[in-house]
Write a structure and sequence with these properties.
This protein has one domain. The chain has four helices and no strands. Helix 1 packs antiparallel against helix 2 and helix 2 crosses helix 4. The chain is globular. The chain is mostly helical.
């Protein structure tokens, strides 16, 4: 067990990444484990595909937006083919 002095928790700011940002960063990476994680987010209703697709245009210039959009649509299709109801 690690003991942390209480002073370590005094006055600070914590930042947490939003679900859509997390989803998109994983979608850009596109690894098998990322697909599994992102489809779980979709299946459990943490985000709507339309919201993620709407943000693709805001991705940095070095991201291939066409590939990213296609990957997201493919993941949605995989989840739907598995019998999950994913909203538009």
């Amino acid at each position: 067990m690690v003991r942390v002095p209480e002073a370590s928790f005094a006055a600070g700011v914590g930042y947490c990444i939003g679900v859509l940002d997390l989803f998109l960063s994983k979608a850009v990476a596109g690894r098998a484990k990322d697909m599994e994680f992102c489809t779980a987010l979709l299946v459990h209703g943490y985000l709507r595909p339309a919201d993620a697709l709407a943000l693709v245009k805001n991705m940095p210039a070095d991201v291939n937006q066409r590939t990213l959009s296609a990957r997201i649509r493919r993941w949605v299709a995989i989840a739907r083919e598995a019998g999950h109801l994913i909203p538009e």
